[in-house]
Design goal:
The complex is a heterotrimer. Chain A is built from ten helices and one strand. By secondary structure, chain A is an all-alpha fold. The longest helix of chain A is centred in the middle third of the chain and has 32 residues. Chain B has one domain: Up-down Bundle (Cytochrome Bc1 Complex, Chain C), CATH 1.20.810.10. Classes of the chains: A mainly alpha, B mainly alpha, C alpha+beta.
Chain lengths: 293, 223, 177
Amino acid sequence: MALGHHNDEKIVYVGDSRVPKRNLENVPPDYSAFPGRSEAFIPNFLLKEWMVGCVALVGFLVLTIAHPAPLGYQADPTNAAFIPMPDWYFLFMYQLLKYPYVSGDYVVLGTLGIPGVAFTALLIAPFLDTGKERRFYRRPIASALMLLSIIACIYLTKISWDHYQHQLELTGTTPEHILREEKAREAAEKAAQAGQNGGSAPVDPADLPLVQADDPAMSLMEGAGCLQCHAADLKGQGSVPALRGTGDLHSKEELVDIITNGQNGMPAFEGNLSTEEIDQIATWLALQKAPTE
Amino acid sequence: MFKGIYNWIDERLDITPMWRDVADHEVPEHVNPAHHFSAFVYCFGGLTFFITVIQILSGMFLTMYYVPDIINAYASVDYLQHKVAFGAIVRGMHHWGASLVIVMMFLHTLRVFFTGSYKAPREMNWVVGMLIFFVMLGLGLTGYLLPWDNKAYFATKVTLSIAESVPYLGPYIKTLINGGDIVGAQTLTRFFAIHVFFLPGALLALLGAHFFMIRRQGISGPL
Amino acid sequence: MSNQNNSNEAAHQPVKRKEMSRRQFLAYTLGGASAFMAMGPVLPMIRFAVDPLLTKESQTSFVKVVEESQVTAEPQEFDFQIHQVDGWYESDPKLTAWISRDEQGNVFALSPVCKHLGCTINWNTQNDNEYHCPCHDAKYTKEGKNLAVAPNPLDEYEVEIRDGFVYLGPVVPNQHV
């Protein structure tokens, strides 16, 4: 402590403590003591920074209100059709692991090798780039390496995203969180309509009775494996819809198309079932309507 | 009256130098966007901190409704988003804030890199900053699983299979993170604990070190 | 930034009013900006947190328990199920009620939760025509009046008689003693 040099100076403490009695020299100099166009942190500079902050906050709140956070359906470990996708900032890693020499026998290179080297280099960058020069155009190696990594990450992210979109198109899948929102909107519209007509609240299709439950189509469906996903009582399970009440949602032609070609993760049954069998099942499913009073 | 209370505390704890140091320290011209518009790149660090504060707050409020349990986690998220007033906004803030914090931190890192601000004597602050970056990625990774929807579940399975590919230690790491053989109830509680207690604790400590070093060394000089 | 320009212009003019210094003005503006930045995110969160206070309490509906003709002057134990919605968790817990008739023949139903420390009471276990709690020997009369240990009489369910059936509603403090 600087105080130690002045042995003649007596330090007076506040009560029985180690806090010295007010020593005005201890207060740091005011910002005005500094030369040039420096200014105080509070309020001058912070105000400018927080003007930027206010703009960012408004943008952020608008984004939040305009786009609700996505939520899919409850996790179902048996769902084989789901296309997994990490958050966007991990996509470059996700994509990297798809390339040869970083996957299969060399997967260690992809999971530990390349990211390990890259992140370690980033972590100890000040000890690798020890020159005095700070301007980026005067230290071409460091700047070039950084630029290349950024471009590589952006490229990998884009490829990965495009691939995902392509896969969605190929399998005719709508991402769950979008599907869910659409369903919720439809249900709300239906409820509003029912309310206008003085009708009752919407019924859960799983509560509907089966129409002509002893139809041979039932055993056909059992044989084809429909019941494994749509449940033995046709009430559906997880994100798989109930087949009770299907007739209210789809016409017979639509049902033939869905069974033949698949939809939203449901496999195509063309080949497993003959056209006549599909027709028979679709005819029966189209009869599954809510009873009219 | 406030002045009286302040003086009473100040006499005993001598707090004036502390806040005067924070409030009145000089900010040089070259980082001030009012003097050079291009200096807005120096704002990214502050914005990262601002969004981090929003993340911590919104996270604290989300735990009022959320339960880390495989049967109820999804239902509680569904409930808090669709049934509770402003739930969509609070969860939205936490969801989009997570992405935004990564973006801001990325921009802040690039600013520090391209202005060469990580060079001596600020090497330690760069290392601490990178550790903050890793902690943030960890928070993003663990937070992704918590709603327990299909996206969360299958993305976590991918992450775990990446962890498993580490030679020799892989299977052990996987079991440790999993809390068992499968991604299930114990994985969810583990990720919840890491997301809510372990990583935020580390984050606060690192942020403290980050700010302390900035105040000690001041901002890097003009180029 | 516009702020800076404004204050520069102000600096060129002779200062007429001394009420507010440049520094004070900046401090007030900063205070306003801080308030906005704090309130923007925090207000939705507060509304989110106090939501249970502001949602209308769902009316506990009455549940059909037993035929009125089965209720005697001697208390009998009846189980019934209610549908409980607890946020995202819906359940059908079983509740128990001791139902009997008072001297005027009116049906009333007592909650079996002892008012001492919350154990479950039982009728006439010591052949004294009293409710008895096994934990600390609390005793109640047939009307639920506390005789020993317990500080308050037993709570009762609201009772409704419709079409010859007893319907039980929410738990209320004892009205008979």
